[in-house]
């Protein structure tokens, strides 16, 4: 409380109040003086309230102050009974009521001035509904609201200009600089005109230059139109590619699917879109409308400071705590009939939340798919611009990758075979060269022998006959083998078909039984899944209720623990204060004067008396100093004059002594001359 009063006194002693108070004088103010002081502070915030409260009734003063405090969003502490006590204290000028109001006002004077200024134009006049039935009144009210909105916009623009850093001095400097540049340009144009006037056919040249400038501007506009048309053509090509892609996908979907699957897909899309239109989008629209309404309500209110936001946050936390307590009480006191339906309600809420989550995931996936499709179209267009081939996608790309991998392995294998064949080829080539050399040597020897025997050419004819017979025998063998192979292959195929039929007959019978069994198991699985989902939903709801109960109990435990610690601290403080009060009362009631002197009241009383005596002495001394100030100043002036006079006499005396000494020296010098 002392810090609060000290802050109020410091602020009141500063500009623009300059009250020259101290703690004692401020504490000794009467109720009417306190009310006038509060009215002066309110008048500084809003000049309409700068009046003398002695000239109006107390009820009018209280009503005026309460209305301004309501506009300034002052929240008096306490409940409704405390509010009535606050009004009564404001009428009577009670210190416990006035001091907090002064402290709150002096803490944020500048913000409150701005709020009071805005309240003059933004506090809406409430017109009764029966008066608004009149068209004239309704039109005037509408104009009033439009003017209020215009004032809001203008005020926002003004604040933005103030905070933007632009100043009139800078704008003036810019304008003056532009005017100087304009004058310089005018002078340059005049000089150029004078130069051109001396040239022959200058009018024709100027006309040609003007036409050139117009043609350049036209060229720029045509280039811009060309660029725009190119962009439009590019976008049209993209749309065409997108439509072709969609058409291709639809063709694929129609080719690969059946009417039943198409109908099922369409039903799913219709269900999803109907859910979005009937359930999700209306809820989102309603939430957006509510948020927009609250935002408009917040914008319509005057600007709020950080302290107001803190107060609202505290209130919001309190209301949330009350809501949680009411929910817990309701959960603890619900009837048995409600307990039967609570599980189903929780299951329905869980399913609806899951449904909303899946719908959001599906919508996000669709948006992502559309964005990827747009990116793919852009990439394909870029590839076509670069004169590349068509971009593969999906299964085609996978097949292409697999094909490349198989070709790569085949290429590596063939490359190894080529390396081996190359090495073998080198060896065989060397062997062939050696054999050719030996064959040539043998042929030369054979030819020489045939020449000796007289049968030249015999070996060559023999080789040709052997080669033809060998070729004929190979052809005959090949024909025979081919016929045998074909007959054997036909027999094998017939036997294989018969074996496959025989082996597949029992398998087909088993497959039919297994299909029937699979249908039965699928139906049973669906039933079990439904039971599992219901059981899981019930367990999840029970778990959520238990978690809420545990959370509530933990919060209650923490709150009770904090209350316990707070009560213990308050108890210790009260015990200390009680002990000090007892010691004070004991010292104050004690008959011993020494003990009485130890009491705080006696000490403060003694200090107050000492300060009052000191003040009296200082005032008497000040009075004596003021009375003797004039004579003392005259006496100081006389002494100064006397000092100057004595200084002058001393200087004259010194001059006279110097003159007498010089005369004596002259007389002695004359006597010496006479003697000589």
Features:
Actin-binding Protein, T-fimbrin, domain 1; 676 residues; 17 helices; single chain
Could you please describe the fold and organization of this structure?
Residues 3-126 form the IFT81 calponin homology domain. This is Intraflagellar transport protein 81 homolog. InterPro entries: IFT81 (IPR029600), IFT81_CH (IPR041146), IFT81_N_sf (IPR043016). Keywords: Acetylation, Cell projection, Cilium, Cilium biogenesis/degradation, Coiled coil, Cytoplasm, Cytoskeleton, Differentiation, Phosphoprotein, Spermatogenesis. The protein has 676 residues and is mostly helical. Among the domains are: 1-123, Orthogonal Bundle (Actin-binding Protein, T-fimbrin, domain 1); 481-583; 590-620. Helices cover 88% and strands 0% of the residues. It contains 17 helices and no strands. Helix 3 runs parallel beside helix 6 (95-107).
Task: Give a brief rundown of this model.
The chain has 676 residues and is mainly alpha-helical. The chain has helices spanning 2-13, 23-27, 31-45, 58-71, 80-92, 95-107, 109-122, 135-163, 168-197, 202-256, 259-300, 306-332, 336-385, 395-453, 458-589, 593-598, 600-675.
SSE arrangement, N to C: HHHHHHHHHHHHHHHHH
Contiguous helical run count: 17
Unreliable runs: none
Helix content: over 70%
In whole angstroms, the N-to-C terminal distance is: 108 Å
Counted beta strands: 0
Please give the radius of gyration in angstroms.
57 Å
Mean pLDDT: 78
CATH topology annotation of the domain at 1-123: Actin-binding Protein, T-fimbrin, domain 1
Q: Output the CATH class name of the domain at 1-123.
A: Mainly Alpha
The coarse silhouette is elongated
Write out the CATH superfamily name of the domain at 1-123.
Answer: Intraflagellar transport protein 81, N-terminal domain
